[in-house]
């Protein structure tokens, strides 16, 4: 009887779904993000990989504003390179390839959080699932010979 009223009602009931965030290219080598203590490293290939320590944690709501489960392949960058920005940080959503144990295949993961306890610039805090996917033993806790590079 009143089709324009029905159409308006249907449109207004349609939920808004925001698009998934797409990470831009990693910040340029040597760029220092706001509040950071060190510049973003150059980790372009496995041959020029960054070297640091790997620890693990149980993710939840991360500094980048997303909630993740322990099984997600995600990690936290060191606060030393991530700096003071959280949700608008250029490192949020960046993908890296990680090797934690020599001889094992790399695993690709996404940066979603900030590691406040990471000591080195290139240290990463890995989700439980990522730590296990890389062959980590929770009894060891910290692996000091991890390498990673931008995916």
Account of the protein in words:
By secondary structure, the chain is α/β, with parallel strands linked by helices. The chain is built from three helices and six strands. It has a six-stranded mixed β-barrel with strand order 1-5-2-4-3-6. It is globular. The relative contact order is 0.25.
Shape: globular
Q: Round the mean pLDDT to the nearest integer and report it.
A: 83
Estimate the strand proportion: 25-35%
Percent of residues in helices? 10-25%
Radius of gyration: 19 Å
| Helix-strand makeup class | alpha/beta
Main pleated-sheet profile: 6 strands, mixed, barrel
Number of beta-strand segments: 6
Count the helices. How many?
A: 3
Task: Give the assembly state of these chains.
Answer: single chain
Order of helices and strands: HEEHEEEHE
Strand order of the largest sheet: 1-5-2-4-3-6
List the uncertain runs.
1-21
C-alpha end-to-end distance: 57 Å
